[in-house]
Every structure is written in structure tokens, then in C-alpha cells.
Design goal:
alpha/beta; Rossmann fold; 370 residues
């Protein structure tokens, strides 16, 4: 009896990346049903991958180059956890993979896996140089990020893939006493975050129009939440759920309103309608893709858009703040019309939305065909 083929599936970055990567992991299981698959993911942000039934093994790895945004946050030698590097390298070597699938075109990942003696490494081609000897596949353009993972697996295996989409196994949906809108105002970068005054104005509008509202945030959002609280005309009750609780809150919501952040990708994976606000990010690659969701953007005409999110060239006028409260309300109206109207809401206040629109300034993007 021949040994099972062993494949290493690697995604080390943020929670939104891990959600998107579950589509690639599903595709890999589809094209290699008998293989032994180990997923290498961040111990916290990689949760959707680590809980996936498509992986036989889970290797947790907090790579030092995924920390922070600036070189000083990542590479100062005395700040690196060398024990973590050794532990991850030992676990990966013990698995003895026949193939290593990377998805970022990141030479740091290529160097690490090559340095611990691995061969047969294949990556998506990116903007950075590729280490010699690494096989690459072209990165598709004009598609959501999750389709890049699926495309890479399909090209590597030379096998067609059907029905592989992002998923979060074990997320529990419950029926709340009253349908609610879930608002997550935070983001991983301040310039991806709609300003506190706009968030407060939206909260006030939702309260005045009878919406049941739940506000959730991460522990790193506390200062921003206080800024919203100070600008708000209504009393705020904010929850700080753990990740499993967040999955349940998003799965059970009538609609989610958020920036380009993890809740966007979680909502789309779980099928919850989403209104996503984006400024610096590519709305096709990082926005909503289900037909009942909408991405709101007013920055597509800027010469710096989309940016690499290392620094903002408009720090005094972030592009996401070009989005008006009325833009979000209009997208919410469309989403509620496309999904289910709130029983609390007078339908005279939420008229049926018109067709999906796109101009150079504002997009309500949908991807029913994807």
C-alpha cells in the first residue's frame, strides 16, 4: 500500500485572509481527496482554517514577519520569538510534506520553507521577487481574494474545481427575539476605518428609525469606541465577543455593517447580508461578493487607489471618509430590500432600492455571477 501524498497548505496572515483561504482548502480537498493535508496558520487569526474538516493536521505558527506594519515591528532581532520559529519548523519537518502551497508571492515565506529543507514549493506570483526554484502560478485579476486561492489550487493540480467557497465550520446561527443590525466599526488600520463622527451619525439614524442595533468591537478598538461614544447622541452598549461568539452574532444578524475588516469576510462566508465600507482597498478583491450584499466606495477615482496600506498619502483626509452617511443608508436600504425587511421598520422609511449602480464615486457592487 503506497503512502498518502502529504500536502502543506499555508496561510499565516489575518483573519480575513484565513476566511478567504478556506475556499482554497476546500478546493484542495476536492482535487486531492485521499491526500493528508496539514494547514499552517496563525494560532488566532487562522481559526477558520484550523477548524476546517478539510485539514487532517493543524500547525499553528505566529511568523514574526506578520507582526505590525513597519519594519521595526517585524525584524528587530531581539523581538523575534526564536522558540516559536524552532517549534514551527520542527512540526513542519515532522509532517514531511511532498508539496507546499503558498498563496502570497511573499519571498519571506519562500525563504522560511526553503531554509528548513522543503522542496516542491509552489506560490502565487506577486509583485515581489520570487526565490529561484519556486514554481509559480499566475494570480488572476478582477476576482475576489478567495477565488485566487481556488485558482492557485486548480492550476497546481490541473484539475477543475466546483463549488469551493469560503466557509466557517461550526458557526452557530440562532433566531434572535428581534431581527438586528450588527455594526462593527473597527478595522486593522486606522485609514480603513470610517471616522467616529460618521459612525455616530449612522447609529443615531438607525436608532431614530427603529432598528434593533448590536455593536461589536475588538479589544484593540476600545479607544475608537470611546470616540464614537463621545460623538453619539444615544447611549451605546458595545460587546467585545470572542471569535466563536462573533461568528454566532454575525450568522444571526439581519445585516452586518462594517469596514473592510474580518466581519465582512465572515458575513460573506456565512451568507449574512453585508454593507461594507472601503476606502484604500480594491473593492473587487476585498469587498462583498454575494448578490444581497453591497460594498460602498468613493475613492476609486483617486490616483493612489488602491494602495498598499503601508502609509497613507492623505492622512488628513482619508479616502474612506469621502463616504457619506447617506451612502451607507442607501446601501442598507438596498440590502434590506434584497434580503428581508425588518418587522420593526416602517416600509415607508425604507423604500425599495433601485438597481445596482456604479459611478466613479460610489459603488454598490454585487457579484451574483461569481
Amino acid at each position: 500500500m503506497s503512502a498518502r501524498e502529504r500536502i502543506l497548505f499555508v496561510e499565516l496572515w489575518r483573519l480575513g485572509d484565513a476566511v478567504a483561504a478556506t475556499a482554497g482548502l476546500r478546493a484542495l480537498r476536492q482535487v486531492r481527496p485521499e491526500a493528508e493535508i496539514a494547514v499552517v496558520a496563525h494560532p488566532r487569526h487562522g481559526d477558520p482554517l484550523l477548524r476546517s474538516p478539510d485539514a487532517d493536521r493543524q500547525i499553528r505558527f505566529e511568523a514574526f514577519w506578520t507582526r505590525g506594519r513597519l519594519p521595526r515591528d517585524k525584524y528587530l532581532p531581539w523581538t523575534i520569538n526564536y522558540g516559536e520559529l524552532w517549534r514551527a519548523a520542527r512540526s513542519i519537518r515532522r509532517f514531511r510534506p511532498d508539496h507546499v502551497l503558498l498563496f502570497r508571492g511573499d519571498i519571506r515565506e519562500q525563504l522560511f520553507f526553503r531554509s528548513i529543507g522543503l522542496r516542491r514549493i509552489v506560490d502565487l506570483k506577486g509583485v515581489l521577487p520570487i526565490l529561484p526554484g519556486i514554481r509559480t502560478n499566475p494570480r488572476p485579476s478582477g476576482v475576489p481574494r478567495w477565488q485566487e486561492y481556488v485558482s492557485h489550487v486548480r492550476e497546481w493540480a490541473n484539475v477543475e474545481v466546483y463549488g469551493a467557497r469560503p466557509m466557517i465550520p461550526g458557526a452557530h446561527r440562532y433566531i434572535p427575539p428581534k431581527p438586528y443590525v450588527l455594526l462593527h466599526p473597527g478595522a486593522s488600520w486606522r485609514y480603513k476605518q470610517w471616522n467616529a463622527n460618521n459612525v455616530a451619525a449612522l447609529i443615531t439614524w438607525l436608532d431614530a428609525h427603529g432598528f434593533e442595533l448590536k455593536i461589536v468591537a475588538g479589544v484593540d478598538d476600545r479607544m475608537f469606541v470611546e470616540a464614537i461614544r463621545n460623538a453619539c447622541e444615544v447611549e451605546l452598549a458595545v460587546e467585545y465577543p470572542d471569535l466563536t461568539e462573533l461568528y454566532g452574532l454575525i450568522a444571526s444578524a439581519q445585516v452586518v455593517i462594517c469596514n473592510n475588516s474580518a466581519p465582512l469576510h465572515i458575513a460573506e462566508a456565512l451568507g449574512t447580508p453585508c454593507v461594507a465600507l472601503t476606502g484604500p482597498s480594491d473593492p473587487t478583491r476585498w469587498g462583498t461578493y454575494r448578490p444581497h450584499s453591497r460594498t460602498v466606495i468613493r475613492s476609486a477615482d483617486l490616483p493612489c487607489h488602491p494602495c498598499g496600506e503601508k502609509r497613507c498619502v492623505r492622512p488628513d483626509a482619508p479616502c474612506i471618509d469621502r463616504i457619506a452617511v447617506e451612502d451607507v443608508i442607501e446601501a442598507l436600504r438596498y440590502t434590506l430590500s434584497a434580503a428581508m425587511p425588518s418587522p420593526k421598520t416602517d416600509q415607508n422609511q425604507i423604500p425599495p432600492a433601485g438597481p445596482s449602480r456604479y459611478t466613479s464615486n460610489v459603488a454598490f457592487t454585487s457579484s451574483a455571477s461569481q
